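During the reporting period the student researcher (J.K.) took over the structure-prediction task from the postdoctoral fellow and processed the backlog of single-chain submissions. One of the processed entries is reproduced below for the supervisory committee.
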Amino acid sequence: MADDMLEALVQAVQAKPSYSQIDPDLVRWLGQQEISRRRSLKEAIKHTRARLHQVASAYQDSNLDYSLWEAALQDQSHDLTNPGLQAVCKQMMRQHASTRERLPILEEFFSQILGAFTPLQSILDIGCGMNALALPWMPVNAQTRYIGLDIFADMAMFLNVFLNHVQNPGEVRVYNLVNGLPLNLPSTQVALLLKTVPCLEQLDRKMTSRLLDSLHAEILLVSYPLHSLGGRSKGMLANYEKHFSELADSRGWQAKEFVFSTELAYLIEL
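J.K. obtained the following structure tokens:
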């Protein structure tokens, strides 16, 4: 009976377009929690949707047309340095809150933080969102392997089309990070955790620590937003500096801090 209730919740949640492409494994994980807390299935469905909106759907525009984007890509160069391809990438990145916020600092963000490691050999992007489209501004070459992990199936499918178009040897996988990192990940030079920590810790306060402790990378880049989705920034810099300091101090890390207009970032050589 409990399994039937959970599956009914998953189907009801994913019947809404905003949640239809989210990894069912995450919906199921949240649904189990909400069923145990709420008085009815209806309440559990409502609160599961609310939590998914908070950590995922709120960051995406509701009218994404990936088929249109795929068509736009076909007319562009395969070369990441091509201005036409870069213009299309920027246009697409405007449809996702996290990458849209980074656009004003895109030219400097990756070059200032990762420029010393040019060219990067491999990248693991945890909770990647649309960040694969920022590859033209990362210090990469044709051999750099990019692997992204995210919970939206349609977005992952499109980003794999993009990676194939620019002839990148990597992939974007649909994956629920509640389960920890995938066991079959290849070793990576650089791991990115860009503005992902606040979302992870809304699901589980210990998730960031578990991910960091299981990570096998030479370099880690962690960042935090300096404005809420509503545009508020009061106290966010100080709060996130404190948050990262606690993570770093408990692991004996020496980190280099970068403060941009929209983002706080830390680089750690592990």
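The committee noted the following: The beta strands are 122-126, 145-150, 171-174, 188-194, 217-225, 255-259, 263-269.
J.K. will present the remaining backlog at the next meeting.
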